[in-house]
Amino acid sequence: MFGKRRRGQRGFKGLLLRFGRWLRWGLRVFLLLLIVDLFYLAATWPDWKKLATGPVPKSAFMREYEKQRAADKHLPPLRWQPVPFASIPKPITRAVVLAEDSRFYEHSGFDLIAFREAMDYNWKEGRLVLGASTISQQTVKNLFLSPSRNPLRKWHELILTWGMEHHLTKRRILDLYLNVAQFGQGIYGVQAAAQRYWGIPADQLSPAQAADLAATLPSPVKNNPATQTRYFEKRANKILSLLERYPGEAAAVVREVRERQIELLAPPPETDIEPTPEEPPAAPADDNSPPPAPDANQPAPSQVEPLPPVEDRSIRSNAF
Questions:
Q1: Beta-carbon count within 10 A of 320 CB
Q2: Which of 23, 43, 102, 261 sits at 20 to 30 Å (Cα–Cα) from 134?
């Protein structure tokens, strides 16, 4: 009996020794791959000084689209015309920040709060449907990386986002994003989008058109001003209501945007089932009934100050 116990102990110890050897070799391989990848990142590290002040470069996504079009001539030609940030109207910059990354001016490239909210949303849905990429991360992905979804690409995105946030201003990051983001099949940048959908330059975009472009970003090929899907119209109306309702300089505005962030970022439905019609309104009250007493805290109509035009508002007074 003691012999069997000793043989069992030796077998267990042998298993632990083999596992230890596998673990050591696994760590060595991992460290070797990490060193090789760091050398690759160092060799391909962007010239941040040039990117901070130079012209907007053609993105990796655009080059990938050109390769696809070379293989399929039925695809529309590439439309891209970068413009200075000063010529992009405030409604489009505000609309994109409101819809895509409401904490853009507060975080350092990564929004951990949005990540937690997205994970909670995915847990409730039972599947991975919502991400939490910031505008900085999306800019890095568009400029330098491929559309593929794999851990290595995500790792490169994190490292490059850290580098971008430490070398570029928020204004420049937003400038790059608005000039390289995709707004339709073969359409990149707000200038090309404004010309393609409305035949006007970007500096003539109205608040409603700015909301339409911001609503395009999650799925630009399927949902855009040309397709006018129900999901697109619903999202564009929500963004436009935020643009028109809130001046954007009070803390309450930030809270309101954050409460709606998950709803704005939610992916389009898988089916196009019409929504259930709302219940009919209640019957009007009897004409002989006395009118309701006025609210003492509600100012008279003449005392309500009108909001300034949406073009004169900004998310922060010093954001632009």
A1: 15
A2: 43
